[in-house]
Amino acid sequence: MGAAADIGIPPNEEYSPRIIDEELDELFAGLPAIAIEGPKAVGKTATAGQRAKTVYRLDDADERRVLGGAPKRLVDGERPILIDEWQRLPESLDRVRRAVDAGAAPASFLMTGSAIPTRRPAHTGAGRIVRVRMRPMTLVERGIEVPTVSLSTLFKGERLQVEGRTTMDLEGYVDEILASGLPGTRNQSPRRLRAQLDGYIDQIVEREFEELDRIVRRPAALRKWMAAYAAATATTTSFEKIRDAATGEEVEKPSRPTAVSYRDTLERLWILDPVPPWLPTLNRLRRLSSPSKHHLADPALAARLLGVDAEALLHPRPGGPDVPRDGPLLGALFESLATLCVRVYAQQVEGRVSHLRTARGEHEVDLIVERGRSVVAIEVKLDVAPGDADVRHLLWLREQIGDELADAVVITTGREAYRRRDGIAVVPLALLGP
């Protein structure tokens, strides 16, 4: 097993419930096949394994060889059947699809995948196999605090009073940024944690690209590109600028096709997790820009790629890839942690997450959570208590879309949740939940 596998849940460790559990149970009760997708080591196998009676592990070379020679066995056995790391044997998707077409009962097949294979199966499985995204653990799943503000309640549009108090402070959020939401990294010493995250990155560069038939001729160049992307966290910096930042003063830069291949492969591995732009159909909001906002799957990976620790985040010094960014790196990584949490909570309430930026950059909103025609707009601030300047874009958006704005929130590093006189909710990240 490679380094990435080593930071999954240990075999005999008690399972910690995940927010995705409720979604899976509801879907699986009426659907024959579900594929859980996401980066390695987020807990897909452990979560799927709670529901499976037969397990085929395609990341085991011997088992994969046997099943590759007799693929019909993949749909034989006591159901539910879990096909783990299905992309290692892409024809497994076709086998499951055919079994669904043949009338498989609800709760028959679970599949987990840590990559989108370059060698596509004969059929995508669309309409037969429902895909569910799984991300690293949120603060709620890490047991940091009992949330007092629910995203689903914010969508009701009643703008009820928000309340709650947390002991979490800025240093605590820094610790959680660095600690990672990968289950196997929890409760490790700082040195072991750094070694695990380094091994995870090594696995991506040295093995995962090759398994997707991508030859990395200059591993150091790929690492520099990943570090430059990490430095661009929570920005819409162009890929050309990321490429320039990755190469610094070097005369020989990776070609544009090479840089594009880095991006595409990392997206196939679910390591890049950009937030798309919000492009509503309302005429009054047509002049919005369309670049995605850059995020890695876990802000801890960004911090490790940049080689920063708590001291460097709290007391920054010049250095690292020179990528245009407003404010300190800590603010960007805190926004990335908040984005991870909000995306998981939004998925639970069937919401879609995007960001808003006008074409000229006059107005920006970090996160737009949309469910039907209702919107919850979220700004993320490193501050303890936001001032009027911190909510101006939220107030502008309220003027633009009126009642479609169910609520507007500023996520902070403060201790208390409350609602401002202008109606904007102020919520410490630790107190927000699904």
Number of helices: 14
Main-sheet strand order equals 7-8-9-10-12-11
Mean pLDDT: 91
By helix and strand content, what is the structural category? alpha/beta
Number of domains: 2
Question: What is the approximate shape?
Answer: globular
- What fraction of the residues are assigned to beta strands by DSSP? 5-15%
Question: What sequence of helices (H) and strands (E) makes up the elements?
Answer: HEHEHEHEEEHHHHHHHHHEEEHEEEE
Uncertain segments are: 1-6
Q: What is the helix content?
A: 25-40%
Specify the biggest β-sheet: 6 strands, mixed
How many strand elements?
13
Q: Radius of gyration, rounded?
A: 22 Å
Distance between the termini: 34 Å
Could you walk me through the main structural features you see in this protein, from its secondary elements to its overall organization?
The chain is an alpha/beta fold. It folds into 2 domains: 5-133, 3-Layer(aba) Sandwich (Rossmann fold), CATH 3.40.50.300; 149-433, no CATH class. The chain contains 14 helices and 13 strands. Helix 8 packs across helix 11 (299-306). The two termini are 34 Å apart. Mean pLDDT is 91; it is low at 1-6.
